[in-house]
Amino acid sequence: MYNLLVMGLGWPEHESTFTVSRILEHTDAAVAAAHRRDGEIDFDKLMRYPCLFMPEIGADEEIARIGHITRVTPHGRGEVLIEYAFDQQVPPIDLGALDRVKRDLQIGDFEFTRTHWAVKRVDLFRVMVRSLPARRNRPTLFQINEPPQIDDNQMSAMMPFNPAFTEVYRTIQGVGAAVGMQVNRADDIWIDHAIIQDIVRLIDRSRIIIADCTGKNPNVFYEAGIAHALGREVILIAQHIDDIPFDLRHLRVVTYHNNGEGRADLQARLEARVRTILGLPPVSRA
């Protein structure tokens, strides 16, 4: 058995109120009857089961958590206060992943759009272990969002921190402006005390990363490797093809000259590639 608790905008940490009339909705009649005592809901019995805390589809963060209820107390007319804890050993679960296993979890389509508390005759952990991807070890040097929280309007530029690349960066910003995307590089932000965390945070939320490999800068290759590992779209650029190491030679590289004409050509070629990635129509340059 497990408790399925669905709340419109999602579940805050620790506690939330819940309407009693919606408890045991979408629950098999025999199961619902077994969790009533003298006509009242048997919360002591419900608290023995693990819980799947879900937001409704359309919430700002469509992320579910697994946890357990620690206490249920009356709270005003027709409501109870639920105190709970999320299992920190189980990563957040994207609603898309839950949709793929909804039949195994006995979750109906309508339940994704209805605030309610159901009880399902299912071994929650067995289904999750069998059906969801295995959890990988999380990085220890920096933190990434799990599940990913990509901003479709974010593009990032990875390049040496050198004044010689100022106009190149402006060129990339021009590409972003042409397709309606914001462009940043690591020195534009300062949120964390460790610069690597700011860099990874930018990569992690970017839809597209443009990495300038000119000069074989090791930092740029390190950042491009992180972006590749996270599955982001990475466009490699360089002023000379010899700046691209052997291990990356199988990838397409946009080469350019760092002068006015060369940067204009770079912007046109990058914009064409970005439009292809985003599924936007090409620009007519007739």
Based on the structure, what is the oligomeric state of the protein chains?
single chain
Overall geometry comes to: elongated
Q: List SSEs in N-to-C order.
A: EEHEEHEEEEHEHEHEHEHEEH
Number of helices: 8
Keywords:
8 helices, five-stranded parallel β-sheet, seven-stranded mixed β-sheet, 286 residues, 14 strands, alpha/beta, Rossmann fold, ph1033 like fold
Task: Describe this entry's structure for a reader.
Helices cover 28% and strands 26% of the residues. The chain has 286 residues and is an alpha/beta fold. It has 2 domains: 2-131, ph1033 like fold; 151-278, Rossmann fold (3-Layer(aba) Sandwich). Strands 1, 2, 5, 6, 7, 8 and 9 form a 7-stranded mixed beta sheet that branches. The chain has a 5-stranded parallel beta sheet with strand order 11-10-12-13-14, with helices on both faces. The chain starts with a strand and ends in an 8-residue tail after the last helix. The model has no long low-confidence stretch (mean pLDDT 91).
List the topology elements.
Elements: E1 2-7, E2 15-19, H1 29-34, E3 36-37, E4 40-41, H2 43-46, E5 51-55, E6 63-74, E7 79-86, E8 93-94, H3 95-100, E9 116-120, H4 124-131, E10 151-158, H5 166-179, E11 182-184, H6 195-205, E12 206-212, H7 218-229, E13 233-238, E14 253-255, H8 260-278
Parallel strand pairs: 1-5, 10-11, 10-12, 12-13, 13-14
Antiparallel strand pairs: 1-9, 2-7, 3-4, 5-6, 6-7, 6-8
Helix pairs in contact: 5-8
